[in-house]
Amino acid sequence: MLRLLKIEWNKIFYYKATRIFTIIYFLMLLAIGGILSLIKPEIGGMKLDIAKLGTFDFPFVWQNITFLVAIAKIFIAVIIITNVTNEFSNGTLKQNLIDGLSKKEFLTSKILTNLIFASLSTVFVLGICLFLGLTFSQSEEGIFKGMEFVGAYFLKLNLFFAIALFLAILLRKAAFAFLGLIVLWMGEGTISAVEFLFKAWMEKGLEKVDPYGVFISNYLPLNTSSKLIDLPKMSMEGFVFGGSVFKYSTVDWTFVVASIIYTFIFLFLSYRLLKKRDL
Known about the structure:
The chain is mainly alpha-helical and 279 residues long. It has one domain. It is 68% helix and 1% strand. The protein contains eleven helices and two strands, in the order ααββααααααααα. A hairpin with a 2-residue loop joins β1 (42-43) and β2 (46-47). The relative contact order is 0.13. GO terms for molecular function: ABC-type transporter activity. This is ABC transporter permease subunit. Keywords: Membrane, Transmembrane, Transmembrane helix. The chain crosses the membrane at residues 20-40, 60-84, 111-133, 153-171, 178-198, 253-274.
């Protein structure tokens, strides 16, 4: 395992673009802890203090922060796709196979890299949540309530990285893999929109459809990743009475199960592609 990680480390940090994206990604995660608490937007002549709205109160901070920072995962997806497609275009994969590295070991090295990126990101986010919560929280709730969102964040990254890895192996070209990711995202968005409109037609009105209700399209791969940490629910009642505007919610465990299944499916498909293809 250490041998595979050493080989992968050398490949990743050989490319300048990969180093830059890695540094940008982790700097973005660190910057969130310092910048979010300083944001005080002015709406209708009234300045709002994000911290006083309960954004960093326990247990809401776990969902709020993991939801926000998940957007940055695209930077790691770029690294994964670039790293894998370079193996094909530069002929390093073929050379590694000639030197005795098996296809299974090759894929294992990529999976281990994904796990390391996901683990480091999760540790960073855990630290950010604890820092913001312990610094700004005015709630009397225990710090561990809602902490399952950190675990959901780890699963979210692994699923997204597994999809990126599969597309990179399937399409072999970075541009095509990125395009494939966009097409998949747009395709799932279209299916979701069609399902929503169909439900509105059945219920005879858009306003009668519960956006937080059960949608089959939510269990598509990218949608599953997204729904692991959903948009935090808010209540104006809390704002009026000077409390938190956020409503407590938990991780939907059906999406946890779905994400684990999808992750294994995409990793298995990646292995089957590598095993059958003439490299």
